[in-house]
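Entry for the shared binder. Reason: the reviewer on the internal report wants the predicted structure included alongside the sequence.
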Amino acid sequence: MDKLREALVVACSEMEKKARSMNMQGVAVASILAKNTEVDWIGEMKVVDTPYNTDSDKGWNLVAIAWSKAGEVIASGANSGDPERKCLMGELNFVGGAYDEDDLYKYAFAFSGGLSEDDLLVAQYGISCMKSLLQK
């Protein structure tokens, strides 16, 4: 496994730990894109106890929501859920996807399963972990 993929797996595990420490269940997504391309995007996903929630009449597909957040983040270059941004078809506009970049990469991390603000905290924590792992 290459260094980036290994770091994504570890970052997802760290997001899982963070979510558990906050008593959250759901889905963590960690993805990265080389800064000079729009197509070389790799990602990992980690289910934290449940990939979906059927407790309500409507139910929630947490896998679909988490990846939608990550997709919105990478398309917009900003955190997901901005009410001022016009959504592209397929985007759900939920808060909880975090964006960051450095000289080499664009980071699109997301969590789905908790309150929107808590999802965003877990996603931002994942990016912080990923950056630390890549500096080693």
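Summary line for the report: Helices lie at 3-21, 62-76, 116-135.
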